[in-house]
Amino acid sequence: MKIIQADSTFSFGPGDMLLFPRNQLSTIIKYPKDGRSYKSVVMTLTEDRLKRFYTKNPIKCTEQNKHRILSFEKHPLLESFFTSLLPYFDLETELPEKLSALKIEEALTILRTIDQSIDSILSDFSKPGKINLADFMEKNFMFNMPIEKFGYLTGRSLTTFKKDFKTAFQTTPQKWLTQKRLELAHYQLSEKKRRPVEIYYETGFENLSHFSYAFKKQYGYSPTELLNSKN
């Protein structure tokens, strides 16, 4: 699994265990290997469940944390926990809520046992504050998400975001995003010699056909034509 963020890229393989803090903008690409299908176990720790957990369990650590992706070393508690979840995937019905709640509480207890500073991430329910819109967009334009989400992460309502965006860039968010993503794609094709199928998702397009259409409309030639001309 390849995880691309604004300033870093991570790669994870079989047996790796990781935690995503809230509001982490990431592009996640899953690669099957050696003919095997990609499989993972994912548990979402919702804000509601975390708040209920901390009403019963006092917060132990409130130190500042960079809220980066955390990767855990192999640990018997984590390994046994995930192993215990595997049989549930054979159920033909949904896992009972009481059992789900117990497993989530078990997961949180394990995380707090193996990482003494984890509360600084799990118990942080603060909302994003108003930040510099132009700086944020220049760093994060390649992430494909609704305009409302960009607004939320910059501490703005949708209306205020669009108003501030027009002031900063003299155009609409969608036009600017498309232009920036195509420029990045053009660079990846012409300078890095990467194939269209390798870059369309990383540069913010939902599918290859949409990317190819937008690229040719912008530049007058297709991504494949550009790549072949550089070979």
From TrEMBL:
PROSITE patterns: HTH_ARAC_FAMILY_2
Any coiled-coil regions, as ranges: none
SUPFAM superfamilies: Homeodomain-like
Entries under Gene3D superfamilies matching the protein: Homeodomain-like
Name of the featured protein: AraC family transcriptional regulator
Pfam families: ExsA_N, HTH_18
Native organism: Chryseobacterium ginsengisoli
Every HTH araC/xylS-type domain range: 131-229
InterPro entries tied to this protein: AraC_XylS_family_regulators, ExsA-like_N, Homeodomain-like_sf, HTH_AraC
Keyword entries, A-Z: DNA-binding, Transcription, Transcription regulation
